[in-house]
Fold this sequence. Notes:
7-stranded mixed beta sheet, 19 strands, globular
Amino acid sequence: MPSSPPTPLLDLEVSPGRPPLLRAEARGAGREWAAEHRDALRAVVAEHGSVLVRGLGLLDTAGAGAVFREIGSGLLPEAEPFAPRLPFGDGVHSSTKWPQNQQMCMHHELSYRLEFPGLMLFACLTAPAVGGATTVADAPSVLEALPAALVERFERDGWLLTRTYNEEIGASVAEAFGTEDRHAVETYCRANAIDFDWQPDGGLRTRQRRSAVLRHPVSGRRCWFNQVAFLNEWTIAEEVREYLLDVYGPDGLPFNTSFGNGDPIDKDIVELLNAVYEDHTLREPWQDGDLLIVDNIRTAHGREPFEGPREVVVAMTDKTQLADCDPTVEVTAQ
């Protein structure tokens, strides 16, 4: 199918506080429209970091998956999720299970892995009655707005993700690694620069040190790329955090982040990170059938609290290697 003309012919709407918006007027022909405009869509995302497409009428997982496959360069299976998703087959998943009354803070998908999606695809099958927008923020702008001394420390030390797996909170070992076989889990961890310890109760604790700042492999722009704030204990709702500390103790939280040398990240730093994200957040309420395309390296994404049913399906594509993004912290698989 022929490529689309240059992006200005797609009638892109750009306004303060909102992600770029395209009106497709292609209900019932989403796959065909996506195939025809694939190059133009990807050019818009390369320029702006994200784009919301309205008018495709994506109302079921099959239709969404067909559009995802036209836009992406091979949909990726999920590995090491921090919370479970429902699989719909062929690389299409539900959005992450997260309490609907709680904010899902800005983050870059799977930023703690050695390979991660370069592009995120979201389709809203059912928009919530209130709230629930998938928000976005420009990572180079966030990086520039952070205090230089803090950035320098993260560039030097990186960040450390510690996960303690259990069957109640977050993803289980089987959900994260696709198996409960200890040998297979250990082999995966060694191949992916993850330190691991089996606990006396049979549980698993892992640690992985990663760079907090990467260089975009295409544009060359430096990006604040991590899940430092989102997976930190101080971002968890206070009542939930107190419950988890009471049940599991400070060393048994399902996930937590620290500086790469193991030093704790103070509450005021987490609050600063989230405040800077908020200053750069773009939001647009979902409508049924919308498509959102996000450059996962250039652009962080989050989710607002919501009321009423909300069904958003997700796909990841454009596999990217950490080693190709000029990481500031060296990690080596064992």
